[in-house]
Structures are given as C-alpha cells and as structure tokens.
What we know:
alpha/beta, single chain, 15 strands, 16 helices, binds iron/sulfur cluster
Amino acid sequence: MTDSLLTPAAGPASGMSAKPTTAFEFPLQDSSGEVCLRQAWASLPEPIGADEKESLLHDIRRLLRERNAVLVAHYYVDGVIQDLATETGGLVADSLEMARFGHDHTAQTLVVAGVRFMGETAKILSPEKTVLMPDLQANCSLDLGCPADAFSQFCDAHPDRTVVVYANTSAAVKARADWMVTSSCAVSIVRHLHAQGEKILFAPDRHLGRYVAEQTGADMLLWEGHCIVHDEFKAVELASLKARHPESIVLVHPEAPASVIALADRVGSTTAMINAVVENDAKSFIVATDQGILHRMRQLAPEKTLIEAPTAGTSATCKSCAHCPWMAMNGLKALRNALANSGAPHEINVPAETAEKAVNCIHRMLAFTALESGGALTNASAAGLIPHIGAA
Ligand code: SF4
C-alpha cells in the first residue's frame, strides 16, 4: 500500500437518506503491516423541535414497554438518550458494562445506542435475544481500520503470539482472537499474559497498545489503528491549558497519543474517568475523551468544574471538538424507528459460526474480570477458558 493514499471507503449507498454527512480519514493496515489512509463517513441526525422531541420520547418509552426491551447506551451518545436509558431501567456505561448488563438482563430485546461493535458484542453474548441499533452504519475507525481478512493473515504470520483484541473490532476479528479486552481491563489482562511468558499481538489501537506495553513490560506487536477522536488531542495545547489551570486534574483516555498521556494525572477508561471526577477531592478536571462523557460527569458531580481538553491549535475555529461522529448518529428518530420497525435496517445479526468463535475471547475477558473483582464466575464454561488463571 502507498503511504498517504486517500481512497474512499464505503460511503452512503445511493438512494439512502440525504441526511448531512461528514467525511473522516482513518488508518487502514494490510496484512503486511503497511498503512494507508481511507475515508469514512457519518450522517448526523437532522435537528428536531421541542414538540417532536417530546413525541419521540413518548413513543420510545411506550415501545420499550410493549416490546419487553431495554435500552443500553454508551457514555458518548447524546445526553437525551443517556437519560432515557436511565429513566426506563436501562443502563449508561462503558462497553464492558454494556456487554455484561445486556447479557444478564431479562429483556428479550436489547436496544444498543452506541456503535456497531457494541451491538455485535451484545448479540454474540445473547444470541437468543433480538438486538436493535438506531443506525447500523454507526461504526468506529478502529473497527474499520482492522479488516478481518488482513488481520487473520497478520496473525498467521506471527503464530508465536497470543492474539489480544480491543472491544472496538468486528465479530469476525474477535473470532480470530484469543482474548478481548476493553480499556478498563487491558492492562491487567496483558499483565497476566506477560507473567505467563506470552508474547502479544495486539489490535487495533496503537495508542492503547503502546500504553499497555509500557505499563506491563509485555512484548507487544501492535496493529496500526487509531480512534479518530482521541488521536486528535494535542499535547502542546494541553500543556498550555494545564499551565493556565494548575489546580485541575488531567484525565486522559488511553486511546490518546503517548504525548498526551504523558501529561495526564490519571489515565483510564471512561468509567475510571467518571469515578475520578466523583471521588477525587479536586474541584476542577481537564477531560481528554469524547465530550459526550461530560453529561454523566455533570450529573454525578455537579459542583465540579469540567474543562474539555483541546483537539486543535490556537487558530482553529473549534478548540475542543472531541465528539465521535458515529456516536452522534444515535438520534431519537432513529431510535424510535428501530423499536417501531426492527427488521433488517436496525437488527444486528452475527453469523452463527463467527459468533461461536468470537464468544470465546469475550467469555475469557468476562471471567477474568469477574475473578479479578472477587466475584463468582457466572458462566462455568468460562472458567476453563482462562489459561493459567490460578497464577493471575
Ligand atoms: S470514539 Fe473513537 S473508539 Fe469510540 S467509537 Fe468513536 S471512533 Fe471508535
């Protein structure tokens, strides 16, 4: 592949809705390790008025009841949808908790407000349930940048390495992996594997991979993907902001570049960042992750000052623009349509053969984190899936 080659990836199919779309570049690696730039797109929900919003909220509440459905939302989606999830007995959480909650809940239908890999994970863990998403085109640059065929060939070329993949991957990539991790458990799982003498192949987030390697000392071969949101945080600008607010605690998500992580007082998952704001005595925090998380932070710690970390230089028109375009695709209209119509435009399906393979790496992670937190294993078969767990 040629460096800096910019070629269009799959865009909106002709005849699809004419909603406003924005294009983004993301890194795409091939099986040999070469990287080029590709283009992806996201279509933003059209603005709605107050009356229409109330009408949609009313419909969604009713449909959730009628369909025995539960809404599971990520911290990065719009605050209105986060509140709706909480109010209707669902959950707002990170991807690990979303997966756990959807699996354990008695509802027959899971509505996942997030991005596609989250819906796939829910379906893999709960194949008997119907999993709906507001927009199946809501993707992730990490997922897009790690195609299953190229990844599988890359793994074949390094058979001596244990394959660890981030949650932000397709079901087909998970089917090729030994372990799945999220940002909340990546360090502890890789530390465990390193203690067993295992060498790691990690995909797809190079920044998270580098951070985990530094924390654990593990030998890690990294896939060269990145999150288009977190990759934008700027260390020089953050240092300047920090100098102007020396009393602030700097919270950074490990998907950010190493130069930004180097300025952090705390590095952690979305849940860890929220807990830090709630539990730390400090009054002010600089937050380097998707701005959608501020909604939950403000609810839980309304007395704290929250400052968005900069994603651009002084001449930019938008100084702190960290918001995932695909998370933004989760609008109220799309959510209502998912519940009202379900079927192909909104329902997540994973081929049975892929799901049967992919579930193993997810079960290993869930079993490991359950043991680590002192909880009992709820899935007995998962216990046998953790190699050397007694030494963890
Ligand atoms: S914020 Fe980044 S990692 Fe999360 S879904 Fe969007 S592109 Fe993917």
